[in-house]
Design brief:
seven-stranded mixed sheet, 13 helices, 450 residues, alpha/beta, four-stranded mixed sheet, 37% helix, binds ligand PLZ
């Protein structure tokens, strides 16, 4: 049993499997979870966590797992990162809440100033804060509709934007996100995404053909003059870490500019150094009119942001935006700690390095294993897509089996994808090299045994 009393980066950076996974204590708590929590709240790996930090998650039975998930791309700076802990500790003793709309405080303004400075584009910007990715996406759409006086929102195949009524309607995949939860919000239109691995005429034609089809559908089926916003993830996250073919994003952004449409980048999963840039849009120099962020922004405290052109955000009347908790002082302090850490520890560089270690290893695995159809991603947002050997047919059971076997070995990996056949890797950016290598070795062994 571990005698650890504190999490964060001082936790032993080791994989340690001392019981079956899940162990007896976790199994006991999982039985209680099943009696107390509805099954709609699923579980990827039923180990109950007591501590986490650096590249590991420690469970109630004393197992230390290598973390290739970061709580779905949230703990980019690591769990219980020192600058986050210190700021939140101080804040919690000073005051916990006033409601920024009632009596404001400086940390909210500091977060807004910082996001206005570091997000793509040097135009004048404004930022307002919310609690979750879905809430921020909804607010971005509200603002775009208000500013343009138009109603239609265009989204893409394989897109994921949340689970509220509007964002569920914006999300592409039916199971598990939409099944039985209709009716959905109106004025949402879906167009093709440039998905290189699955583009019928080949990846070399993907960007141009997909953009032409998307634009044609918008013009013919909706009318560009009716479109308030085009909303896209610069790398589709839940959809399977699909990097749109190069050229697609700039082409869509240009179409928006030419037609007075607000181009919204959903960087909830890709943001804050994850992809080896501070924001994934930077890779092709795309400057969104509005950028939505969450997850990695505050190291695990609930915070999200809408950052955009001043002339768009300033259009909304006084009191038209807000919420009780948006930009809570603890979450704002955490965000300031995250931003300091990204800069001080060069986590953008660290994310690139993680990609440089992972991609060649995974490509070598793919060369040996016909079950791995594609290896893709940037920085520390990397995935493999599993197929029935010799075909492009999705192989979700293989993805599930590989994930299960990795979990049993003490490596936490997540699945994703419209077809459920993608394994995605999102290590905290502070993961030490030796754990990264050990995780990849486990993956290599498990894939070779499938
Ligand atoms: N936009 C791009 O990835 C959240 C979903 C987990 P919230 N992705 C993880 C699940 O199964 O519910 C996400 C995202 C993108 C929006 C969201 C929504 O962010 O903070 O979960 O609301």
């Amino acid at each position: 049993m571990s005698t650890v009393t504190q999490g964060g980066p001082s936790l032993p950076q080791e994989r340690r499997v001392v019981t079956e996974i899940p162990g007896p204590k976790s199994r006991e708590m999982f039985a209680r979870k099943q009696a107390a929590v509805p099954p709609g709240i699923g579980t990827t790996l039923p180990v109950f966590v007591t501590h986490a930090g650096g590249g590991v998650v420690v469970d109630a039975d004393g197992n230390s797992l290598i973390d290739f998930g970061s709580g779905i791309a949230v703990t980019n700076v690591g769990n219980a990162a020192p600058r986050v802990v210190e700021r939140v500790r101080r804040q919690v003793a000073d005051f916990t809440h006033t409601c920024f709309m009632i009596t404001p405080y400086e940390s909210y303004v500091q977060v807004a100033e910082k996001l206005n400075e570091i997000t793509p584009g040097d135009h004048e910007k404004r930022t307002f804060l919310l609690n979750s990715g879905a809430e921020a996406v909804e607010n971005a759409v509200k603002v775009a509709r208000h500013a343009t006086g138009r109603q239609a929102v265009v989204v893409f195949d394989h897109g994921y934007h949340g689970r509220t009524l509007l964002t569920m309607s914006l999300t592409a995949k039916n199971m598990p996100y939409k099944q039985g939860f209709g009716p959905f919000a109106p004025e949402v239109y879906r167009v093709p995404l440039a998905y290189p691995f699955r583009w019928p005429s080949g990846p070399e034609n993907c960007a141009e053909e997909a953009a032409a089809q998307a634009i044609d559908q918008i013009n013919k089926q909706v009318g560009a003059e009716n479109v308030a916003a085009v909303l896209i993830e610069p790398i589709a996250g839940e959809g399977g870490f699909i990097e749109p073919a190069k050229g697609f994003l700039p082409r869509i952004a240009e179409f928006c500019r030419a037609n007075g449409i607000v181009f919204i980048a959903d960087e909830v999963q890709t943001g804050f150094a994850r992809t080896g840039d501070l924001f994934a849009c930077e890779d092709e120099g795309v400057v969104p009119d509005i950028i939505v962020t969450a997850k990695g922004i505050a190291g695990g405290l609930p915070l999200a942001a809408v950052t955009g052109r001043a002339e768009i955000l300033d259009k909304v009347h006084v009191g038209g935006l807000g919420g009780t908790y948006g930009g809570n002082p603890l979450a704002c302090e955490a965000a300031l700690g995250v931003l300091e850490t990204i800069e001080a520890d060069d986590l953008v560089g660290r994310a690139r390095r993680i990609g440089e270690v992972m991609l060649p290893r995974l490509r070598a695995i793919a060369d040996k294993s016909p079950i791995v159809g594609d290896v893709r991603g940037r920085g520390a947002m990397i995935a493999i897509e599993l197929v029935v050997p010799g075909t492009r047919e999705p192989h979700p059971t293989a993805a599930g089996e590989i994930a299960r076997r990795c979990h049993a070995e003490g490596l936490l990996v997540l699945t994703a994808g419209t077809y459920g056949n993608v394994l995605r890797f999102l290590p905290p950016l502070v993961m030490p090299d030796h754990l990264l290598e050990e995780g990849l070795a486990i993956l290599e062994k498990v894939v070779s045994e499938i």
